[in-house]
Amino acid sequence: MPYAFIQDIPADAYTYGQVRARMADTPPAGLLSHVVYEREEGLRFVDVWESEEAWRAFHDSTLMPILSSVLSDNGLTPDPSKVIREQVTVVDTWVQAPAHLPVA
Predict the structure, then answer these.
(1) Burial of 48 by CB count in 10 Å (0-12 exposed, 13-18 middle, 19+ buried)?
(2) pLDDT tens digits for range 83-104
(3) Coil, strand or helix: which one is 9?
(4) Nearest by Cα to 88 from 32, 19, 8
(5) What is the rounded CA–CA span in Å between residue 49 and residue 24?
(6) 7-43, pLDDT tens digit by residue?
(7) Residues 6 or more apart from 9 whose CB is under 8 A from it?
(8) Alpha helices per DSSP H over 59-104
(9) Is this prediction's pTM over 0.85?
C-alpha cells in the first residue's frame, strides 16, 4: 500500500543540497515522488512511496547515515516529533526534475 511521508526540518536549501550531494543520482527503489519546499521555519519534505517497507529500507540504509552526518556538521538535530505518517491511496503522481539544486 502506498505510504506518504511528511516532515518539517529546520534546515535551509544549502543544507539539503549537502544531503543530496551525498546520495545517488537515481531515485531510491520504491520512491514515487519527492518534493521539498521552503517554509518560514525551514524545509518541508513530502514523499510518496510504494510502501512503508520501501521507505524504511531507504531511511535505515541510506538516509539516516547521510542525514545524521550533515545535520551534525551543521549543528542541527532531527526532530522525529515533526513527522507525519499516513497510508494513502495514490490517484496520480507527476514528477519533473528540478532545474537546479544548491549543493555544497
Answers:
(1) buried
(2) 666 666 777 767 666 555 555 4
(3) strand
(4) 32
(5) 17
(6) 887 788 898 999 999 999 889 999 988 988 888 888 8
(7) 42, 43, 44, 45, 76, 78, 79, 82
(8) 64-73
(9) no
